[in-house]
Structures are given as C-alpha cells and as structure tokens.
Amino acid sequence: MSILIDAPTWPGHGRLWSHLASDVSYAELHAFAERIGLPRRAFDGDHYDVIADRFETARAAGAELVTSREIVVRLHAAGLRRRKVSRLAP
C-alpha cells in the first residue's frame, strides 16, 4: 500500500486541508478513504481533500507523510495524475 498525504496547509472554506492519494491505484485510495470515514464527495479527480481534523486519523491508519510536490511526482510516475478541467467554458 502506498497511501500518501501532505500536511494540512491548503486553505479553503475557513479551514486547512491535506491531499490524500495513492500511487498504486484509485481502488486502493477509495478503500483507504472508506476505511477512515472520508465521504466519496471529498474525492477530487485523483486525490481526496482531507480536513486538518482528519489528518492524524489518516496518518494513524498508515498514510505516508510527503510533500505536496512528492504527491504530484508520484501520481505522474504511476500514470494516475488527472488534470483539473476548467469549469468555465470559453
């Protein structure tokens, strides 16, 4: 299992957030997220957004602390990186 998480430093909606990802498969990521109680709506294309309050839960369950950049590098290397699609039509 290679579940990755970065530190909760990303601001949004008045809170800080982490990114939770897998460099093995989306199936592994979804199973891990379900095991720690993350809702599927927290999935954002190739990672889950994790509120700071849930960071330690993810770490205790085995998520490896890495930098945000390391998550992107490892997702690219595994062929799992999905670019965000702009929601604004040209």
Chart the SSEs and their pairings.
Elements: E1 3-5, E2 10-12, E3 15-22, H1 26-35, E4 48-51, H2 55-60, E5 64-65, H3 68-78
Parallel strand pairs: 1-5
Antiparallel strand pairs: 1-3, 2-3, 3-4
Could you characterize what this model shows?
There is one protein chain. This protein has 90 residues and is of the alpha+beta class. The chain has helices at residues 26-35, 55-60, 68-78, and strands spanning 3-5, 10-12, 15-22, 48-51, 64-65. The protein is built from three helices and five strands. Strands 1, 2, 3, 4 and 5 form a five-stranded mixed beta sheet that branches. Helices cover 30% and strands 22% of the residues. It is globular. The protein has one domain (3-78).
Approximate helicity band: 25-40%
The poorly predicted ranges are: none
Oligomeric state of the chains?
A: single chain
Compute the CA-based radius of gyration: 13 Å
Count every beta strand, where a strand is a DSSP E run of 2 or more residues: 5
Shape summary: globular
Number of domains: 1
Number of helices: 3
**Averaged pLDDT, please?**
92
